[in-house]
Design goal:
heterodimer, A: 109 residues, mainly beta, five-stranded antiparallel beta sheet, 11 strands, 0% helix, globular, B: mainly beta, seven-stranded mixed beta sheet, four-stranded antiparallel beta sheet
């Protein structure tokens, strides 16, 4: 069992829909990261959070430390949001990032 | 953000070749990372350097040899690779672990 689990693995939505991607982890962490990977491989860090909630434009990330769970929400989704969204955690034991398998999001016009 | 560059972007090599991947960051960061991304698998951390010193080696085979001459440059020297080493190799940097990491575009490696 992976230390970082994401759901769903694949998600297809219509433009304008509200999207939620979930991440659960089983280790102690100092931070949780949400990353976006577009076709071709480039990765962009969206959020790093250790508590509460962060918002950037149409993206919102929340984390519940007690439940070891985080969600990434996209409001008013758009086809350009189509990408793989990856959850990763920095374990308290060191500096390494442990990654989830990613969620492939496709937003249709 | 294109503060992290990687060259080459694509590389095809035979199993007996020796090649090197290069990563350069222009962000003034102190930590640099090598990751491997194989098809349909999560990203895997390979190496971490902090202030030019290697702080993580995630049980990587010795046919991968990293080099970090200064905080801005990171190399991955490759020799006698196997076809299963074909993958996307990503470099990243951060102010220091565990800060937000900034990724390069990656090198798509194919080993024949």
């Amino acid at each position: 069992k992976n230390e970082v689990e994401q759901s769903p693995q694949n998600l297809t939505a219509q433009e304008g829909e509200f999207i939620t991607i979930n991440c659960s982890y089983s280790v102690g962490i100092s931070a949780l990261h949400w990353l976006q990977q577009h076709p071709g491989g480039g990765i962009v860090s969206l959020f790093m959070l250790s508590s509460g909630k962060k918002k950037h434009g149409r993206l919102i990330a929340t984390i519940n430390i007690q439940e070891k769970h985080s969600s990434l929400h996209i409001t008013a989704s758009h086809p350009r949001d189509s990408a793989v969204y990856i959850c990763a955690v920095t374990e308290t034991s060191g500096s390494r990032l442990t990654f989830g398998e990613g969620t492939q999001l496709t937003v249709n016009p | 953000e294109t503060g992290v560059t990687q060259t080459p972007r694509h590389l095809v090599m035979g199993m007996t070749n020796k090649k090197s991947l290069k990563c350069e960051q222009h962000l003034g960061h102190n930590a640099m990372y090598w990751y491997k991304q194989s098809a349909k698998k999560p990203l895997e951390l390979m190496f971490v350097y902090n202030f030019k010193e290697q702080t993580e080696n995630n049980s990587v085979p010795s046919r991968f040899s990293p080099e970090c001459p200064n905080s801005s440059h990171l190399f991955l020297h490759l020799h006698t690779l196997q076809p299963e080493d074909s993958a996307l190799y990503l470099c990243a940097s951060s102010r220091g672990p565990p800060d937000t990491q900034y990724f390069g575009p990656g090198t798509r490696l194919t080993v024949l």
